[in-house]
Amino acid sequence: MIYINKYKIRIFLFLIVLFGFLIRVYSLSNVPNGFHADEAAFGYNAYSILQTGKDEYGKSFPIVLKSFGDYKGALYAYSDVPFIATLGLNPFAVRLPSVIFSTFSIFLLFILVDKLTKNKKIALISSFLLAISPWDITISRVTGDVILGVFFGLLLSIFLAKLYENNSLKWLFFSILSGLMAILSYAPFRFYVVILSFIFLLFSINRLKNKFIFNKKIALVILSFIALGIFYSLVGSIERFNQLSIFSNPQTKLVMEEQIREDKLTPVFITRAFHNKIINYGRTILFNAQQYFTLDFLALNGGYPQRERIPGVGLFYLWEIPFLLIGIYLILKTKNKRGLIFIFWWILLLIPVFLTFDEIPNVHRTLIILPAICVIIALGINETLNYKILNKSKIYKSVVLIFLVLVIYEFSYFLHQYYVHQDKHQSWYRGEAYKELIPQIEKYYPNYKKIVITKSNGSPYIYILFLGKYDPRLYQSQGSPRDLDYTGFDKYYFVPHDCPLGAQLDEKGLAKGSQGFLYINKGSCKTPANGKLLKTIFWGDGSPAFKIIEYLPK
To answer: How far apart are CA 109 and CA 324, in angstroms?
Structure first.
């Protein structure tokens, strides 16, 4: 492989980081098409903090945000505040911090890999792979609190590597601070920072005169993170983990109970041996685990949530998979201690996810493993390009050219699928129709006493707040009521069924309604005979999303 001097390395790194930023920021307001409710929630809470110093529920400067009955790390909302203050409350301003932190992560990965491998070529390739990663690009172009978590996770790893080499209080302080910021960014990091720190502690262990010694300051970092994680859980964020835990999911328990019923003629000791919590929950964990190592997840279709899926595109390019296998083989064969860090990073940080059941395999909860996999692939690429037989052969340039063609082709295919197909593909998962619905509702707002809205297409209240730039003080003064069933605020009233007007029609096709009310039905609802269709809102694929209907007395 051709030698690259330090000056060229810096130029290449700058170009990689710049390219990573441009591909993430291009057409950010419009792609992905639509604006998910979680994005709107982060944006509106940032707007509320900017205006009032309180979140949507009136809590002053919170460290966690209550949202849709769940709790999220508040750090992303705070990072949004300066952009909303300067650019206004809009999708571009809300998504921009995600782009910026993702871009900085490309640079941080170079620093980390260079420090651990002492090889700038591998570090450069790792950064390039992260820059063009479909997984990272897709999530960084939406409001991604997990992107902040990955950024601070990489920062933590750099400081732990520094602490490993230099037992300084300075690196201890920065390690704890970066881990704390990761926890405040994305709730699962209360587990991830402990595991990451444990990996560095594990590789700091040395044997000296029949005694094992380890880095006590890294151990102190771990204890600090455990304490921070417990405190963070106590303020509310543990609820989400309890909701997602396989031990809260009745499915495994129901299967076990069914097996026990079917064993009614079997001796009790046999039933207890084969059908118990250890066996059944163990099988559930193994089933979850294997899904994260399949070709379908890694390179063909990706994972959940559905709104982040790109049609026909996985999380990695197909050409990366052979290099991933080569990288794994190389690390295990040579027992490279620094390389094993990334194998452990990949495997151990998946353990908390194995214990969850909703939207499996999940691309948000597992994004933290992406940097480690990029490094392993980079090791495989570097080893292949340095292979002696290949380097001495006359076909070296041809092989490199074919490789570059594959890289460009698959990257272009990803961009085509992302910018052309996802724009229209199942846009209801991203609440795309609300961008047109809310301005229409505001247009009709002065003419009606009440506006009754279906909840069938997600959570409408957050779009009213965000897209309508609803005054946070006014909303908080009404008790921050959200859109719980048969409740509302201002003129807005929310119902859990598809057709607020026309759910039940009499023999003449008439519906029960109230004079002076405006009804927002789901697009599939039939317009009653005593209703006037004012506007139909469509999804990106042309199917009807909402119907705006005025009730007319008989």
So the answer is: 17
In the predicted model, residues of the chain with pLDDT beneath 70 are 1-4, 207-212, 235-244, 388-394, 554
Measured in Å, how far apart are the chain's first and last C-alpha atoms?
82
CB neighbour list of residue 476: distance below 8 Å, 6 or more residues apart: 48, 52, 54, 56, 57, 58
Q: What is the per-residue pLDDT for 388?
A: 60
Whether the CB-CB separation of 522 and 547 falls below 8 Å is answered with: yes
What is the token pair recorded at 305? 């949530």
Q: What angle do CA 122, 309, 34 make, to 5 degrees?
A: 115
Say what the pTM is: 0.91
Residue 160 CB-density burial (10 A; 0-12 exposed, 13-18 middle, 19+ buried)? buried
Query: Per-domain residue ranges for the chain?
Result: 433-551
Structure confidence at residue 429 (pLDDT): 86
Q: What are phi and psi of 395, to 5 degrees?
A: -90, 10
Task: Specify the pLDDT at position 238.
Answer: 61
CA distance 242 to 293: 25
Residue 499 backbone dihedrals phi, psi, to 5 degrees: -120, 85
pLDDT at res. 275: 81
CB–CB of 217/167 below 8 Å? yes
